[in-house]
Amino acid sequence: MKYIDLAKTIGIFAMIIGHSDIPDCIRIVIYAFHMPLYFFITGFFLQTKSDSIGKVADKKRKALLIPYVFMVLSIIIVSFLVSFLTMFKDYEMEFLKNGFIILKPE
Hints:
- By secondary structure, the protein is mainly alpha-helical.
- The chain has helices spanning 2-18, 24-44, 53-85, and strands at 91-95, 101-105.
- The chain is flat, with a radius of gyration of 20 Å.
C-alpha cells in the first residue's frame, strides 16, 4: 500500500507542476505519465467481483453525473448573479475557459 500512496503523491505533484508555468520540454515529460498513472491506479482499485460491467458503469455514471450537473448549474447561477449584480456598475465580466469569473473595471 505504501507504493500506491507514493504513486498517488507523485501523480498529484506531477499534475500540479504540469499545470504551472514550466518549459514545454518538462510539460511533455510530465504529460506522458501523469494521466496514465492516474488511470492505472484507478483501475487497480476497481472492484467488479459481484456486479456486471453494466451495473458498475451505471453506479459510476450516477456517482459522477449528479455532482457534475450540480456544479454546472451552480456555475451558471453564480454567473447570472454576478452579471445581474454588476449590471449597473462599471464592470466588465469575463468568463474564462476554465470557469472562473473575472471582473475588471472598464
